[in-house]
Structures are given as C-alpha cells and as structure tokens.
# Entry
Amino acid sequence: MNGVGEAKLLLLGWNFRTAGMSVRERVAFSSEEIPEVLRRMQGEGLVTEGVIVATCNRSEIYGVADRDGANEYLTRRISEWRGLEMAEAEAGSFYREGAEAARHLFRVAAGLDSLALGESEVLGQVRTALRLAREAGATRSVLHRMFESAVAAGKRVRTETEIARHPLSVPSIGFELATKVFGDMAERTILVLGAGETGTLFAEQASGAGVKDIRISNRSRARGDELAARVRGRAVPWEDLSRALPEADVVVGTTASPEPVVTKAGVEMAMHERRGRPMFFLDLAMPRDFEDGISQLYNVYAYGLDDLREVAEENRRRRSREVPKAEAILEEDLAKFLAWFGNLAVIPTLTGLQARLASLRDAELARVPEGERERFRAFADSIAAKLLHEPMRRMKAETDASRKLDRVEAVRHLFDLDA
# Structure
C-alpha cells in the first residue's frame, strides 16, 4: 500500500536477513557519513525527507518521495556511491511502501526485527537516526512524526511486556557465545577494541559476569581510559595493540574501521608468542575489524555477526511468548500514526480531484458559445458537486487508516492526480 500525494512513504534496506556480510559492509553508513548522504539524496530529488537507521546488522533508508520509481532511483544511486553492482545491491535489499514501511520501523524500534529479539540498544539507535537527520535538515513533519511515534511504541513494548525483562543485545549474545566456547570467562583476559556503544556494552557485560582482566584499546585515549575505569579494567594505548594481542584470550572488535584492525599476520605472531594457546576472536563491527582467514590458524576461533544467529535463536524462543502482546501494542500505536498520515493525504487528494474536474469543465466550456458559458458552468458545477459529495464524505469519514490510504491511493490512480 502506498503513501499518497506529496507524502509517499518508502523504505529501502539491507539487513542480516536479506544480505550477506560482504554487501552489508559496503552499504554500512557511519554517523559521520549519514548527514552528507541524506543531503545528496535530497539534492538529487530522490526524497523530500530522509532518515537512515544504521546498526551493526542493518542499513535502512526511510524516505518521503514525490516521484514514481523512487526505489529504483535510490538503489541505483546507493550502489554507485558504495561501489556495488546494481544487481548485487538489489539482490540483498528489501523495499516497503506506505503502512508497511512504517510498520517495519515500529518493529525495529521495539526490537522485534533484531537478531537478538527485544534487544536493548536499538531504540537508542532509532533515536540517533532521527537526531542525525534533523541536524542535516533532512526530516520534516512526516518522518519526524513517524520516528517519534515508533520510539514511543518501542518504549511501551519494553514497559508493558516481558520481552525486554532481561535486556539482550548483540554484545550480550557475543559474550554468551564466548562462554560456550571457552567456558568460565572470569579468569580470561578480554581485549575490547573500541569504546563506542558496542564496545561499552560488551565490556559492561563482561564486568557484570565477573571477568577480572578487561582491557580497552581505543583510538581516542581519553574515551578508552574512561571506559576502562568504568569496568575496573585497564586501558591499552592504540599504538600498543600489537604488543597487547598475545596477552588476550578473547579479542572483541567493535571499531568498524574501514580497514581491518587485526591482520592474519598479526594473529600468527600473537599465537607464536602464546605458544599455541587458544584465542577467541569476536567481530561485532560492520565493516569487520578482523582480516579474513584468521580462523584458519591453529587454535584460533573466530566468529562474526552472522555466527551469532544460533545463540540468538535460543534467546528468541525464550522470549517469543511475549511477541503477540508486543505486536498488539505496535499495531495500536501504528494505527494512530497512519490515521494522522491518512488525514494528511486526504486534503491534497480532494483538492487535486476538484482541480482536475474544474480543468475538464473549463476545457469543455471553451467549446460553448461565450454567451451561454455561465449557464453551462453553473450546470457543470452542480453535477460535479453532486458526484463528489459522497466519495469525499466517505473518504473523510473512514476510520480504518489502512482502508483510508487505500481509497485515497485508488482515487489518485484512477484520476491520474500524481501527473
């Protein structure tokens, strides 16, 4: 179902369900890139409003478009900007319009579309996406209202259901996987690369589980020191990373550096110094922090985001009983947004329909002798008013938001109002 008139909602995305790691890396947007990408999309007329939700497992572009074929235009431009073949970008993408685009966002905000069902950090990521778009001047009434509504719905789900009673996140699932491989983690040395949101969550998870030796290495020394102090760990200067690597039993990558932070050669040297004692590498970054091939080394266990699915599925089964209750909350709040959006769409549609009939009337009156035009004009206006009365009344009175949007879209299509 489409949005209508000047407010066509759309969503173009790539996530862990639709695209492999190599494609997700290429379409990943950093917070520094997002404002410029949004400005380019608006500058080229791809969207009139835009917001990008970027997490370790998804890149999703929400937009308001006033042109047909926005999906194809947008996919082509993103593939060109990110150096992807169009076919590759399309194969890993998914597209939603209208109510389905809004519904997807509401599910994302509530943690229902996450690898870790009910994950805790995604709500903050949705908020961040809206903030970045606002700072870039890329969002106005429609997407601002939609994102604010989605955040409010996500909060309700967390408050009114048990789906987030024991908060889950990708880092917490990663820690659970490390525990499955290594057993008791309390006596292990953990080296976390990066002190951003993901690195912080993993370090806090490890600290809460009783790990005594947590080391933090971050490009910004002050931020690394701050996190190390918070988890009662030790800061490692970024330039000393190669010397710190052999001492770590578990290495967690969260920096999302454009180039690998840890190379296969570096791990080989570390394993030589460790005399073959096993190492566990967990790459939670997008793009990846660890070079391909390190898992081929003896006693090196390397896992990435896609490897977390099995653990995530176990957690999902435990929480799935709460999903129907959460979805009912989302549908309730979604209906309120769609009702607002539907009313927003009705006015330009009715105005456009009246203008189309007036144009047809004037074209026909031009063929009538000038002295008789006013009499025929009154007659034509009377017929038009009677024809429009019932459709307009029903469109305005419809209380089901989805049906209202369907009817508005049908009117616009049948009378070719978007032309």
About this structure: Confidence is low (pLDDT under 50) at residues 1-6.
